[in-house]
TrEMBL record:
NCBIfam families: PRK12470.1 (NF009119)
Descriptive protein name: amidase
GO molecular function: amidase activity
InterPro entries noted in UniProt: Amidase, Amidase_CS, Amidase_dom, AS_sf
Domain of life, per lineage: Bacteria
Catalytic activity: a monocarboxylic acid amide + H2O = a monocarboxylate + NH4(+)
Length: 463
């Protein structure tokens, strides 16, 4: 197989080829290392590439394959977002304020290694994962492989850019307010925000007071399902998510919604609205019962519940840095805002989550899945917010990405499915939101859409 075709084959196909002896783990790794050497100086998807460590892991994986061992990701390279610990590496959180290299893996990385994954490197993030664009004073700007003048999104921007450009077949992301779904949308790949507690965050538990979760960024639905089977911390049948991705979802009742969860006026772009209309038409053609219906979003929920958790979480993260004096001024200002939320206030915020979630989730009494636009507009230009303060930046970026944060508040799973391209030639998506703990239905439905409207063959100009 041509090296470029191999790089874009996806994790599931690569795992099969490795198991069948069609390729070797060291050969596969070198395909990605060569591509990183050639392309990542423009893209800046990685903060660090583990050349020596990954080569040792690939050799060890090949020995296990030669001995007949079979694991779901044995020999497959996986990129890790730089908010998860990899033994021997710094966890930078996108800042120069970080501490020394860590001695042990995060639980999610340990589980990926147990499934046979080769850890290729750590991907770039904005400082403390705050923004939906991946730029920092410490590590520069990560660029969108579809247009180098635009952001890939954030905060999992490096992970999404790496998967989109063929610099990794699969990547770990995290999502505290859209940080998997936003960059997956703008880079044209599949991203899944998992159910809260689906994947362990140990030793960084309860990120942003329960808003943040880990999840996969992948080229295909099956690739994401393999990742989820390898990392789930909630007991269930072995291989349940790969099985879900391989089966038809059955006839579902699906609600299309363009309503934004905040009372602030947000203008959703015509291409994004057209994508949702097209998704509704396709879902009807696939035999689903499609209705137009909006969740009941309490107008206060984002401001009184999500926002305090978001800001106080940032404040706690800033306080936890080894050298907080090196944080960017904008980050320090946002962290200061978060410091005004006392422990007593946070306890009250968390206690109020149940009532808000019950109201929002009441739509799932009647429907199986809610489908929304992936984002309201396309990605911003690199440096667009460079001279903006904390509040101004947050208000401006919120206009682009209004459909994500409410589902971090409720904690339930949501995925973005690549759709079409906007007028600037940049990818768009539609968002699928499932019932609590029901990633399986999202995977089944997303896989059905993938068969009807394939996307994994698309390659950006920088590839």
């Amino acid at each position: 197989m041509d090296p470029s075709d191999l790089a874009f084959a996806g994790a599931a196909e690569q795992a099969r080829m490795l198991a069948d002896g069609e390729i070797t783990a060291p050969m596969l790794l070198e395909v990605y290392l060569e591509r990183i050497e050639r392309l990542d100086s423009d893209l800046r998807a990685y903060r660090v590439v583990r050349y020596d460590g990954a080569r040792e892991e690939a050799e060890a994986a090949q020995q296990r394959l030669d001995a007949g061992e079979r694991r779901p990701l044995l020999g497959v390279p996986v990129a890790i977002k730089d908010d998860a610990d990899v033994a021997g590496e710094v966890t930078s959180y996108g800042t120069g304020a970080h501490g020394p290299a860590v001695n042990s893996d995060s639980e999610v990385v340990r589980r990926l290694r147990a499934a046979g994954a080769v850890i290729i490197g750590k991907t770039n993030v904005p400082e403390l994962m705050i923004m939906p664009f991946t730029e920092s004073l410490s590590y520069g700007a990560t660029r969108n492989p579809w247009n180098l003048s635009r952001t890939p999104g954030g905060s999992s921007g490096g992970s999404a850019a790496a998967v989109a450009a063929g610099l990794a077949p699969l990547a770990l992301g995290s999502d505290g307010g859209g940080s998997i779904r936003i960059p997956s949308t703008w880079c044209g790949v599949f991203g899944l925000k998992t159910q809260r507690h689906r994947i362990s965050q140990e030793p960084h538990d309860d990120g942003w007071y329960g808003l943040s979760v880990y999840g996969p960024i992948a080229r295909s639905v099956m690739d994401a399902a393999l990742f989820l089977d390898a990392t789930t911390a909630i007991p269930g049948p072995e291989g349940e998510f790969a099985a879900a991705a391989a089966r038809a979802p059955g006839r579902l009742r699906i609600a299309l919604s363009t309503k934004t969860p905040t009372p602030l006026p947000v203008r959703c772009g015509k291409p994004q609205l057209t994508a949702l209309e097209q998704a509704g038409a396709l879902l009807r053609d696939l035999g689903h019962d499609v209705v137009i219906r909006d969740p009941e979003y309490p107008p206060w929920a984002i401001y009184s519940n999500f926002l305090p958790r978001f800001l106080r979480g940032i404040s706690d993260d800033a306080d936890g840095q080894a050298h907080p004096q090196y944080l960017e001024p904008r980050t320090r200002n946002i962290a200061k805002m978060g410091s005004f939320f006392s422990d007593r206030r946070m306890a009250a915020v968390l206690a109020a989550e149940s009532a808000a979630s019950t109201r929002i989730q009441s739509i799932f009494d009647d429907v199986d899945v809610v489908v929304t636009p992936g984002t309201a507009t396309g990605p911003s230009r690199i440096g667009a917010y460079h001279r903006r303060g904390g509040i101004a930046t947050l208000l401006l970026v919120a206009q682009r990405v209004p459909y994500q944060q409410v589902w971090n508040l409720t904690g339930q799973p949501a995925a973005v499915v690549p759709w079409d391209f906007d007028g600037d030639g940049l990818p768009m998506s539609v968002q699928l939101v499932g019932r609590p703990y029901d990633e399986a239905t999202l995977l089944s439905l997303a896989a059905q859409i993938e068969v009807a409207r394939p996307w994994a063959h698309r390659r950006p100009p920088l590839s």
